[in-house]
């Protein structure tokens, strides 16, 4: 995962909001992400409260969220953001792999968990993936999440088709990718995803991917996280 996924030249830019309490970090991210013509950094915030106001005003596609900030931390901000703007994806970008931070960010609704030493290509890939609804996790964060993941209580058995969709989610497929792979419509895939999340008592695709890995539906070694 060292190069951004190739994008069609006609693809719309991904609108990104940067949230970090250090101005030099935000400046560095702007410079790195500015190398990708299909990423448009539309704003910045220095803490969680500012982030919520900026998301409401600017409607970004993806928010790059630091976790350790004054006024309002990134986990609290992510939880509030996802309640108010469920279609905006959050990438947790931090310097720690402490378990309570990793688990807290994913439980709050972050689609991806990255470290600040990630290359610009890796971060750009994560942004494009998030815009498509795909999961990207730092490998060690993924291992810790899988080990500690509890998940919800399964209410009904998954159908064979839902099991296949769950496997493909774990392998990083977007709804469009799954639709093409299974030769069905995206609307049908959305229905499968909604039903399997309900049956598993889960809230997000990231949690579904972790469930698949934890329960052997997919292999961590074979998953592009």
Automatic annotation (TrEMBL):
Keywords: DNA-binding, Phosphoprotein. Residues 151-216 form the HTH luxR-type domain. SMART domains: HTH_LUXR (SM00421), REC (SM00448). This is Response regulator protein VraR. Gene3D superfamilies: 3.40.50.2300. Coiled coil: none annotated. The keyword Phosphoprotein applies. The keyword DNA-binding applies. Residues 15-131 form the Response regulatory domain. The modification 4-aspartylphosphate is found at residue 66. Pfam families: GerE, Response_reg.
């Amino acid at each position: 995962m060292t190069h951004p996924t190739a994008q069609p030249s006609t693809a719309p830019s991904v609108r990104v909001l940067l949230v970090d309490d250090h101005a030099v970090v935000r400046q560095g991210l702007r410079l790195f992400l500015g190398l990708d013509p299909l990423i448009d950094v539309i704003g910045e915030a220095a803490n969680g409260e500012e982030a919520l106001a900026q998301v409401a005003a600017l409607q970004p596609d993806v928010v790059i969220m630091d976790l350790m900030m004054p006024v309002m931390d990134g986990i609290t901000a992510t939880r509030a953001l996802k309640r108010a703007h469920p279609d905006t994806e959050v990438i947790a970008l931090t310097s720690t792999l402490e378990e309570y931070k990793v688990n807290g960010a994913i439980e709050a609704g972050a689609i991806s968990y990255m470290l600040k030493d990630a290359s610009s290509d890796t971060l750009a890939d994560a942004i494009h993936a998030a815009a498509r609804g795909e999961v990207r996790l730092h490998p060690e964060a993924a291992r810790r999440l899988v080990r500690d993941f509890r998940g919800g209580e399964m209410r009904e058995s998954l159908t064979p088709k839902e099991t296949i969709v769950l496997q493909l989610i774990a392998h990083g497929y977007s709804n469009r990718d799954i639709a093409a792979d299974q030769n069905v419509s995206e609307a049908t895939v959305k229905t499968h995803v909604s039903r399997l999340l309900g049956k598993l008592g889960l809230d997000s695709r990231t949690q579904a991917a972790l469930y698949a890995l934890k329960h052997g539906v997919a292999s961590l070694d074979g998953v592009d996280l």
